[in-house]
Design a protein that fits this description.
about 475 residues; mainly alpha; 24 helices
């Protein structure tokens, strides 16, 4: 009888967690409906029906995203369905986001990740970095953070990079847990999360937020930022963030850098188990190299970044040329596609209904407009506003697609170049460190069960302050030197 008590307690605990999760979801649904109705009836009468419904729909969708009442894909399709049923815009406008090149860039990126994961390349790189960085916990943390940065060049999705790295880190914790204190566990998990967050900073296809920002610039201004241009503007921020994040994690959760007995041997054995690099891996590296080269030379051939991504996805799945099968590469997460398509459409919907102009009024206080005329002060204000806004609108795609058009409108109105302002806001949106729901790497890391939301808060605040300061410092120096910012 006594032997049955523990499993029963575990079962009860699991049931309790599921009940709480369901309760939160129901609260999210009810709250979103209540907020929708309140906005519809309380928004100014002079605002026409289409704009009211668009604003109410957007805020309700944000509530659903935050509470995760449904899957992200379901919420995204609900946005499209609502738009079509209420006829606030035409069906072509409602689905316009799905015809964007950004959609095919993300689809191609996920297909590339599936193909690469079908080879030992990612595992080989992870084991190699961890072996070379030594056996101390501080060096392993540095290795965990750096792995995500290297992956960013050929795996264009933060969620995929974090997902590929997490099992290796969990394996390390399980293998050596008897030698580690709780702070080492926190360090490694935050390394996965924060390392993933900053990994998309300088590589254009490496984060959905980057892709969305470029598409919004194209839609609203008819201009764009190339792969090489994005790398040029963001590289100093990226380089400074890597050691800064490592330092903050170790500072907030201090632990004496200790030897992890056997880690070098374990990584060496894992590498030996993979054998020598094979022909499939060499072919994969060649195709990835060509793809990255095409991305970097966009300013010469003027191909949308989606084209090299699709090229790589197709070639990687060709018989005798590629490394996997077509059946494998098409097994992608459609939730991501639906989120990106719906949020791109949402931006167009808000603009066409006049909702963006109404929302922009809240950011058009005279002191703010006057301050935006000074380039450095504009960057400081945009970074602060974006950080606060992203805490409320946790989904990166939704935050970018609702905030950037407003900033473009203000900048255009006062005759300021909107490009560097949009760039500063989009980079800031990637750096969500405080709340788990701010970024996918945070969610994936916390979902492992090895770290809680509470453990994100203090290091997250410091990381937010640090990333904001770094962005402002780079804007005041590097951006001015290269002529990106006046």
């Amino acid at each position: 009888m006594i032997g049955n008590v523990k499993p029963l307690n575990k079962l009860d605990k699991q049931k309790s967690i599921e009940q709480k999760t369901q309760a939160v979801k129901w609260v999210g649904v009810i709250l979103s409906v209540v907020i929708f109705l309140l906005l519809v009836f309380m928004l100014p009468k002079e605002l026409h029906r289409e704009a009211k419904l668009a604003i109410a729909m957007t805020v309700s969708a944000i509530v659903l995203f935050i509470t995760e009442a449904f899957s992200y894909g379901q919420i995204s399709l609900l946005i499209i369905l609502f738009t079509c049923f209420t006829q606030i815009v035409s069906i072509d406008t409602a689905l316009s986001g799905f015809s964007s090149g950004a959609i095919f860039l993300i689809i191609g990126g996920m297909m590339i990740a599936k193909a690469v994961n079908d080879t030992p390349l990612t595992q080989r790189m992870t084991y190699y970095v961890l072996q070379k960085f030594g056996s101390t916990t501080s060096r392993v943390l540095a290795g965990i953070i750096l792995i995500s940065q290297v992956q960013a060049f050929f795996i264009p999705a933060t969620a995929v990079r974090a997902t590929l790295l997490l099992p290796v880190v969990i394996s390390l914790l399980k293998t050596f847990d008897h030698q580690l204190n709780p702070n080492i566990r926190r360090q490694f998990m935050l390394g996965v999360a924060y390392g993933g967050n900053i990994s998309g900073t300088a590589i254009l296809p490496a984060a959905i937020g980057n892709v969305l920002a470029v598409e919004i610039l194209n839609i609203y201004l008819g201009t764009s930022i190339s792969y090489f241009g994005w790398l040029l503007y963001a590289l100093p921020i990226w380089i400074l963030l890597i050691p800064t994040i490592w330092y903050i994690i170790r500072r907030v959760y201090p632990a004496e850098s200790q030897e992890i007995q056997g880690i070098r041997k374990e990584m060496k054995e894992q590498l030996q188990g993979l054998g020598k690099i094979n022909v499939r891996e060499i072919r994969c590296l060649i195709i990835l190299g060509i793809t990255v080269l095409l991305w970097m030379t966009e300013s010469f051939h003027h191909m949308h970044p989606a084209i090299p991504a699709i090229f790589a996805a197709v070639v990687l799945s060709l018989p005798k040329i590629g490394v996997t099968t077509w059946e494998n590469v098409i097994k992608i997460n459609l939730d991501t596609v639906f989120v990106l398509g719906a949020t791109l459409s949402l931006g167009t919907i808000l603009n066409e209904t006049g909702a963006i102009q109404f929302l922009g009024g809240f950011l058009q206080a005279q002191w703010l407009v006057d301050s935006m005329r000074h380039s450095l002060l504009a960057v400081i204000l945009v970074v602060i506003i974006t950080q606060i806004y992203h805490l409320g609108v946790s989904n990166v795609s939704t935050a970018i697609v609702t905030l950037l058009p407003v900033l473009i409108g203000i900048a255009t109105q006062i005759g300021v170049d909107p490009v560097y302002i949009v760039f500063a806001a989009s980079i800031t949106c990637l750096h969500g460190f405080i709340l788990v729901i701010e970024t996918m790497p945070n969610i994936i890391s916390q979902g492992s069960g090895y770290i809680t939301q509470k453990e994100f808060i203090v290091p997250g605040i410091w990381a937010t302050v640090a990333s904001s300061l770094i962005t402002v410092i780079v804007a005041a120096t590097w951006w001015k030197w290269i002529g990106f910012m006046p």
